[in-house]
């Protein structure tokens, strides 16, 4: 089976398994999605969804958030980890949005990635899920599964993103990246599958006998 054939099989099966692709992070608009994605770094969606109701009850717009002391933001988001840096980023980007973007989340990768605490992955999620721009954010699940499924050598997250974009139709990217995440959490977990256990791994590589060692 070629890499393109494996990609087509993955695309088809995951679409059947996950016809709906709800965004796992609770949010109300582009701004609250941006904050939730920023908080998800080295945390879990479940953990983020526990703290954002309290945070957004206090301030759910950049105008309101820039008025909240950084220490108060930090207190609320502490369970997510890295709270000092994240609190400063939330405060700082909120002020920039108000002062430079009219209180709106910018709609370009370049402008998003200039904001404090916003890297390429965060920008990609916002562009894809808030604005519908085709993007392929690569998290740890996608990076791992792309290697297990022979879709990328996984030398880096950046390389994995380039490989996946080249393999899958552009119009599938926004849903597919979520489908891979869902599958990685439910079926092909870091500890529950080693490349020889889940149905997809066994279908793609029926002769694989040894665990697939993946790059981080």
Could you explain the architecture of this structure?
- This protein is mostly helical and 216 residues long.
- The chain has two domains: 3-21 and 136-204, Helix-hairpin-Helix base-excision DNA repair enzymes (C-terminal) (Endonuclease Iii, domain 2, Orthogonal Bundle), CATH 1.10.1670; 30-129, Endonuclease III, domain 1 (Orthogonal Bundle).
- Helix content is 58%, strand content 0%.
- It starts with a helix and ends in a 12-residue tail after the last helix.
- The relative contact order is 0.13.
- The model has no long low-confidence stretch (mean pLDDT 96).
* Counted beta strands: 0
- Quick one: CATH superfamily of the largest domain? Hypothetical protein, domain 2
Gap between N and C termini? 25 Å
The count of domains is 2
From the alpha carbons, calculate the radius of gyration and give it in angstroms. Answer: 18 Å
3D shape: elongated
Order of helices and strands: HHHHHHHHHHHH
Q: Can you tell me the residue ranges where pLDDT is under 50 for at least 5 consecutive residues?
A: none
Number of helices: 12
Topology-level CATH name of the largest domain: Endonuclease III, domain 1
Q: State the helicity in percent bands.
A: 55-70%
Q: Which architecture of the largest domain per CATH?
A: Orthogonal Bundle
Average predicted confidence as pLDDT: 96
